[in-house]
Amino acid sequence: MRPPSLRLRLGLGLGLHLGLLLAGSAAAAGPAPGIKLNQIGYLPQASKLALVPAAPGAGAAFDVVTADTARVVLQGRLGGPTNWAPADDTVRVADFSALRTPGRYRLRVAGQPESDVFTIGADSYRALDGAALKAFYFNRSGTALAARHAGPYARPAGHPDDRVLVHPSAASGTRPAGTVIAAAHGWYDAGDYNKYIASSAISTYTLLAAYEHFPQWFAKLETGIPESGDAVPDILDEAMWNLDWMLAMQDPEDGGVYHKLTNLRFDAMVLPHEAMREPRYVVAKSTAAALGFAATMATASRVLAGQEQRWPGLAARTLAAAERAWAWAGAHPALPFKNPPDVVTGEYGDVHLDDEFAWAAAELYITTGKDSYYAALAPEAVSATVPAWDDVRGLAWMSLAHHRNRLGPGADRALIASRVDGLAARLAAEWRASGYRVAMRGADFVWGSNAVVLNGAMMLLQAYRLNGKRDYLDAAQSNLDFVLGRNPLGLSFVTGFGARTPQHPHHRPSLGDAVAAPVPGFVAGGPNPLQQDRAECPPYPSSLPGLSYLDHACSYASNEVAINWNAPLVYVLGALSTLTPGEASMPPTDYSLAQLQRQEDLLQFDSFGNGAALDIGLKLVALARVEGKAVAVEIRRNGMLLFAHGMDGTAPDHADWIRRKSNLVNRTGHSSYYMHAQVKADGGDIDAMPTFDAREYAAHGGAFPVRVRGTGLVGSITVSGLPGVEDHALVVRALQDYLGVNGAL
User: Which of 132, 419, 594, 619 is 20 to 30 A from residue 652's alpha carbon, by CA?
Assistant: First the structure.
């Protein structure tokens, strides 16, 4: 958000201001020297790449050594020199993906200083993900941060927003200008103390989607907020803090949504409780605010439906609010927001509203199942792009892809998959062609460029969830690596995490407190050659897109923090931690519902005929024989038996188990082990399911749905003879091999 002046934005004393100017002017003009890699670490089976300067006479080989004893554990050859235009830097790639042993390491290349220490471990991203999520707590409005939760960053409450004025631009018949309303809670948007629906919508949605897609990871991610331990995952408690505020921003009279809650001008660089001299206003309703609100509330309705005991009636309330906002937007389809003359805080103006209509329609369709919303989506006319606050088309496709097997018959599942895969294919091509192995072009370096990197990773992961193409997973990992240190500046852009991190972010709480280090867990905006703050800051070190960054409190254009930059970091860390294949070659002793759903999403066919049934049946028998096991196998399409075989050692009752497990698949559309896990999770009895006759249905593993893209369920593949989880794993292994996808196990 472009502020009017440095004086209003910072409010710094002259001495401190000059000191910061001098400190910021010493930045180097070119890429940082030395080896660049992810300064936090890697999951054992993740792609692991480092960048080595292509200096004349430098070595062409690399060693990976243990950090404590310098013992060589891996050796390799560097790739050829490649120039990356956004930083005009020529580098060589060191690929050490083969190293999977947990530990602490450094990378060595002759003629270069040793790299920073990095770790390899199965839990490499848990602490960072917790901090990225807790950053939202540190930006809460209207509450004191107690020392037991905030440590040295404890502070008094600021901006209760229980007496907010209706600005003349937001006036209505029932709420004339000057009306006092309450709109408490919510997150401060960024480095300032205002709250905006545009950034809140995409941020809250991304947190809700993170939990919806990876509930097992986020259910265990405790962050030490006041609500921790209340039997609700912290990510949902945190999202609820902002949903409370968003709900208060809807006019109860007509369903419209105020665009923002703000002072008339920016506060000084002080703590929140010291910045409450100016009155606060809700400012003008807008079409974009109503649609972003509708999409977020529709998402919240389905994600929080399982939390009725914690928040009674909330799912129904948020859905009703979403539909009212949608109706208001339909009656006001082209009402963009523009700051009134007396308001100079962030505008978040957006005159292109087709993407907001598409996103809101998609979320409402998924949650309600109403075909009218799918028609309003007009999916054939909606492309897929990397999400941003002002371009949310990608979020529509992200949600549709996650839910595509549960959509009504009118939904075009093939189109959904092609939109997501098409975007990922473009991003992966950029990643492969990039000297820095990142899916970013020069034009992508804009205000909040790190959010562009992370949202790109998020969309790559949607495609990986669809089809298991390893390139998509590796490209997403590379985008994360860029943010965590494998960039031309050699800087981890997350405060408090990495060998070198931002020390002077544009963030009022970090500058206003007495702690030298900034509040941890925030993503700095990142390189931005547009340099909207150049008149108010010392000179940037470079105008090149990848180097145009100032670690300076004045630099709101490159060094501000923002909730909509942190949200995709939370998502990507959890997604990579869940989706990156594990170390074990054997299947786990159990699967989560999210893993079982992912298997069904991945293991689909473009077509399924007699030949496919024969090949898969023989593969199942061969896999069992290699493992010294005996199973019975049956494959059917539309009720017709295409393959059946009982290996030596199987018994006649296996046929009955096959019949009952297959019946369950045909009735529910899910694998029999998915139903097993769902019943157990709900506290039920797998052998006494309500409305399921145990003589006809068996919720034991081994039967898997045969789905054809664009058609849906057409049959089942069933194995019997082993414990249920092993029957299930055998089918998944065979399908993964046959379909040529990764990541199902």
Answer: 619
